[in-house]
């Protein structure tokens, strides 16, 4: 018990520093209706994210693959200081009635973090949201705009931002992810 509490705080504290926490418990935004997990699989590039992390890697992408046991193999990669880094995690649909509400964990000692697909057309863009309650007093949240290609028309990005805002998710601090010069460096 002591161990998991310490571990929990070790992971929560950096989150608090990275993002101004919002008062109150997590919101419950609408997610993609009739979500088709199979169509969502494959390669997605990070186009923009919240919170702002200016010193993080670039060329961030994630490759989702459905495994035979219906869990999801999640391989994320980035280029940091001219080095390709990969981490592998596991995704699950936690409640079959809510297939767009995935959970992802990058280590077997960590619980699944929410990874909710708020909206996607499967072929161009996906809006992902993650929120964690802290003692029901406040919450920290994360949001991503993902694309099937490394660049996305500005209008599509704007529409995604509007969708987040309509769900009362504050994306004013969202920043574009660096996806330039990715394919030629490696
Ligand atoms: C994604 O993962 C699958 C299964 O591991 C692999 O076959 C495929 O080549 C990967 N795609 C990319 C772009 O890494």
UniProtKB/TrEMBL annotation:
Protein name: Apolipoprotein D
Taxonomic superkingdom: Eukaryota
Entry annotated with the keyword Secreted: yes
GO molecular function: lipid binding
Annotated localization: Secreted
Annotated signal sequence range: 1-18
Keywords, alphabetical: Disulfide bond, Glycoprotein, Lipid-binding, Pyrrolidone carboxylic acid, Secreted, Signal, Transport
One GO process term, biological-process aspect: tissue regeneration
Gene Ontology, cellular component aspect: cytoplasm; extracellular region
Protein family membership: Belongs to the calycin superfamily. Lipocalin family.
Pfam families to which the protein is assigned, alphabetical: Lipocalin_2
Residue span(s) of domain Lipocalin/cytosolic fatty-acid binding: 36-178
SUPFAM superfamilies: Lipocalins
């Amino acid at each position: 018990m002591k161990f998991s509490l310490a571990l929990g705080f070790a992971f929560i504290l950096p989150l608090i520093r990275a993002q101004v926490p919002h008062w109150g418990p997590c919101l419950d935004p609408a997610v993609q209706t009739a979500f088709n997990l199979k169509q969502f699989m494959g390669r997605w590039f990070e186009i923009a994210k919240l919170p702002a992390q200016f010193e993080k890697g670039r060329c961030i992408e994630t490759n989702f693959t459905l495994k035979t046991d219906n869990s999801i193999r999640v391989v994320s990669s980035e280029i940091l200081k001219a080095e390709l880094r990969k981490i592998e995690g596991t995704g699950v649909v936690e409640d079959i009635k809510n297939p767009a509400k995935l959970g992802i964990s990058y280590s077997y000692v960590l619980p699944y973090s929410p990874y909710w697909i708020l909206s996607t057309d499967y072929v161009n863009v996906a809006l992902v949201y993650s929120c964690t309650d802290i003692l029901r007093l406040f919450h920290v949240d994360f949001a991503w705009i993902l694309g099937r290609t490394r660049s996305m028309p500005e209008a599509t990005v704007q529409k995604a931002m509007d969708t987040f805002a309509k769900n009362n998710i504050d994306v004013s601090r969202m920043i574009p992810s660096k996806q330039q010069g990715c394919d030629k460096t490696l």
